[in-house]
């Protein structure tokens, strides 16, 4: 056999080998069939590719570079065919691993979040007070001294204005200092400045005081403050509203008691305690709106009177859910929050 004839025979054998490998792998329907084809064509001991490689010894030296290059190309092509067959059979096995698809089976449950317990409490309070005829209002959290102190009859020398008891803000180009509101009574002042009696409003929102965080205090907390202004309002109306609210929110027959106290913007003033589950708990402060506050917003104390109350949302939520430490609401512990 001439040299060129030996090369042509070698190249033809390589092409036949590639064609057979392609046909065999295309017909392989599972991983077992692919493995059988691998042993037949590229097996280390008796594979057909190994047999063809031995034919290189009969190629003339001048033709060996061409024969070697072509052999490597066919070897790489067969390797690509095997890789594609393995991927195809593996994907098919994965699709059928679970058996036929049952479209009636329920899908995988997607975990959903829910409202924070404080937000739940605020919305529940709004709902209850709405049924009692109170409109929910809101206002800015950054306030001026007039709305946070002066309109509420808190004199300049009053200790409640001390920088140690408030978060004052350093703001450039302002004639007076601003501060984070220390009570939601500021919203009541703003509403009374823009509306005439009768009024029934409730404001809920964040307030800020530099308190040391403990089981019952936090530097940022939420208040619900109610205000009713109309002719003939008395302390009896105040107690009735608070009792109806407590019974609706906490459930059952909740008793409410007043203890004498002092607040600059109410006269008389009381501390509000509620009994629930055989235990008295301090919930906030209340009282009749001081005539000086009514005059500050342009109301006539001789013709209208009103009551106001302020309750801590965190305390209400803690009492409702049996939480001993209000700091738990702000630790962002999902194990705690998912209970609500």
Summarize the structure in words:
The protein is 41% helix and 21% strand. The protein has 340 residues and is of the alpha+beta class. The chain has two domains: 3-95, Methane Monooxygenase Hydroxylase, Chain G, domain 1 (Up-down Bundle); 117-337, Bira Bifunctional Protein, Domain 2 (BirA Bifunctional Protein, domain 2, 2-Layer Sandwich), CATH 3.30.930. The protein is rod-shaped and about 125 Å long. It starts with a helix and ends with a helix.
In which order are the strands of the major sheet placed? 1-5-6-10-9-8-7
How can the largest sheet be summarized?
A: 7 strands, mixed
Stated plainly, the CATH topology of the largest domain is called BirA Bifunctional Protein, domain 2
**What is the annotated CATH architecture of the largest domain?**
2-Layer Sandwich
Helix content bin: 40-55%
CATH class of the largest domain: Alpha Beta
Q: Roughly how many Å is the radius of gyration?
A: 42 Å
Q: Tell me how many strands there are.
A: 10
- The helix/strand class is alpha+beta
- The overall pLDDT average reads 87
Instruction: Give the domain tally.
Output: 2
The H-and-E topology, N to C, reads as HHHHHEEHEEHEEHEEEHEHH
The helix count comes to 11
What amount of the residues lies in strands? 15-25%
The CATH homologous superfamily of the largest domain corresponds to: Bira Bifunctional Protein, Domain 2
Q: Which stretches are poorly predicted, pLDDT < 50 over at least 5 residues?
A: none
């Amino acid at each position: 056999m001439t040299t060129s004839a030996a090369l042509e025979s070698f190249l033809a054998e390589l092409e036949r080998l590639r064609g057979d490998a392609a046909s065999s792998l295309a017909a392989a329907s599972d991983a077992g069939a692919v493995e059988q084809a691998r042993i037949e064509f590229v097996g280390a001991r008796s594979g057909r590719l190994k047999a063809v490689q031995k034919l290189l010894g009969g190629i003339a030296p001048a033709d060996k570079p061409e024969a070697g290059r072509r052999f490597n190309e066919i070897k790489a092509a067969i390797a690509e065919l095997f890789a594609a067959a393995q991927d195809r059979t593996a994907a098919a096995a994965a699709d059928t691993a679970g058996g036929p698809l049952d479209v009636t089976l329920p899908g995988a449950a997607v975990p959903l979040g829910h409202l924070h317990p404080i937000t739940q409490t605020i919305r529940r309070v709004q709902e209850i007070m709405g049924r009692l005829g109170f409109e929910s209002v809101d206002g800015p959290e950054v306030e001026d001294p007039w709305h946070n102190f002066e309109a509420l009859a808190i004199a300049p020398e009053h200790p409640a204005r001390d920088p140690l008891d408030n978060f004052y803000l350093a703001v450039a180009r302002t004639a007076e200092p601003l501060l984070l509101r220390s009570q939601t009574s500021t919203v009541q002042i703003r509403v009374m400045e823009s509306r005439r009696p009768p009024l029934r409003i409730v404001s809920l929102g964040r307030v800020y005081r530099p308190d040391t965080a403990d089981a019952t205090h936090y530097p940022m907390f939420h208040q619900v403050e109610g205000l009713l202004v109309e002719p003939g309002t008395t302390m009896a109306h105040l107690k009735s509203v608070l009792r109806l609210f407590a019974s609706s929110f906490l459930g059952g027959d909740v008793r409410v008691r007043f203890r004498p106290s002092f607040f600059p913007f109410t006269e008389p003033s009381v501390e509000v305690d509620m009994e629930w589950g055989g235990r008295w708990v301090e919930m906030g402060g209340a009282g009749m709106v001081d005539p000086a506050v009514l005059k500050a917003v342009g109301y006539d104390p001789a013709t209208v009177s009103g009551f106001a109350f302020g309750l801590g949302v965190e305390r209400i939520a803690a009492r409702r859910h049996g939480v001993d430490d209000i700091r738990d609401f702000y630790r962002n512990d999902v194990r705690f929050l998912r209970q609500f």
